[in-house]
Every structure is written in C-alpha cells, then in structure tokens.
Write a structure and sequence with these properties.
Elements lengths: L20 H17 L8 E5 L2 H6 L1 E3 L18 H10 L5 E4 L5 E8 L14 H12 L3 E5 L5 E5 L2 E7 L16 E6 L2 E6 L1
Parallel strand pairs: 1-3
Antiparallel strand pairs: 1-5, 2-4, 3-4, 5-6, 6-7, 7-9, 8-9
Length: 196
C-alpha cells in the first residue's frame, strides 16, 4: 500500500514486470536519500538492481569480497534502518546492489556485465547507467541508479522510465534524458518526472 507521502512515486511504480512495489518503493526512497545526503560530505553514485536476482547474479560478478555475504536474510532486509545505513556506507564502493523481489539485499559491490551493442541510450550518462540499461534488457529486473549529480533514474527494459530530482533547484530542462511525453509530480522539495 502506497502511503500518502509516497504518492509522488505513483507513476514509477508499474506492475508491468510484476516486481513487488513495496520493495521497489523502499529502494527508491533509499536511492533518494543517498542522492540528497551523499556520504562524508561528497556526492556519490550507486545502483540497485531489483528483482530477477538469479539471472542478475549470473550476469554479474563481485568486484571485491561481498561485504554482505554470510549475514542472514533477516539482517539484509531493505526496509531495516540498520541495513539502510550500511548500504549508504557501502554505496561509496564500486558496484551494484542486487535486491530480491522479496526485499532483501542479495549481494553488494557487483560488477554488471553490460553489452552496449544494441542500446539506444542518451550520451553523457556513464558506465553505471549503461550497465543498468543492459541488465534490464537481459532480465526482468528494474534498475534504480543514483547519479553523482544527485539525480535518481529508474531504468526498465533498457530505457529511462523516470528521473527523480530531489532538490527542485537542480532541475533544468537540459538535465532530462527522457524521450517523448512525460508527466511531472511535485511534492515538497522534490519533483518526479515520468514517461506517460
């Protein structure tokens, strides 16, 4: 159930891939917090791949020893405040977080195998975005990418389907990479722009 304060995300939360909307919402909220807060006084980027974890794991590898390996599922639930702080710390490291549809973080610091060959993706977005586009083409997962410019992008089936700008002053038309018609939804100091 989407809470009133989360209605701003309603256009993002699609049932197209049958991804658990509560899990996706927790990941989006965490991504927005990371985009707003950064870490240690600096902006950071990171990526979450949500759902289809088995296929995603087969199309990725760890960059370093997985810091979450060996911990119980109960300790790795994305909605748990202790884990959320851990994820914010780990987001400073390279690699993606793989989040199961049921809401636990399966793995951290993953290098996503990407194939840019057939991708029609906006120039100017880096390897993190390209990897997110590639994995969402190969799997039934959705990617939530935090850019170092503090914009959160949701990528599904190889294309950006939504951009979240946590601070309104950051929004300027040239920063949008969505193609076609889009809708805007504003709440307090945040604007969400989604494909129609």
């Amino acid at each position: 159930m989407i809470k009133k304060k989360d209605k701003v995300f309603k256009n993002i939360l699609t049932k197209r891939r049958n991804i658990d909307l509560d899990t996706l919402l927790h990941v989006i909220r965490l991504a927005v917090e990371i985009a707003r807060e950064g870490r240690e006084g600096r902006k950071i980027g990171t990526m979450f791949i949500v759902s289809d974890e088995d296929k995603t794991l087969k199309n990725s590898r760890n960059l370093i020893l997985d810091p979450l390996k060996g911990h119980s599922r109960k300790e790795k639930i994305i909605s748990d405040s202790n884990l959320r702080e851990t994820v914010k710390e780990l987001a400073q490291l390279d690699g993606a977080f793989i989040v199961s549809d049921s809401g636990f973080v399966v793995s951290a610091c993953r290098y996503i195998n990407s194939d840019a060959g057939q991708m029609d993706f906006p120039l100017g977005l880096g390897a993190r975005h390209m990897a997110a586009a590639s994995i969402t083409k190969k799997t039934n997962a959705v990617a939530v990418v935090v850019s170092e410019s503090s914009i959160v992008r949701i990528i599904d089936d190889g294309e950006i389907v939504s951009e979240i700008v946590p601070e309104l002053w950051m929004l300027n038309e040239s920063s949008l990479h969505l193609k076609g018609d889009y809708s805007e939804n504003t709440q307090e100091d945040m604007k969400v722009i989604s494909k129609k």
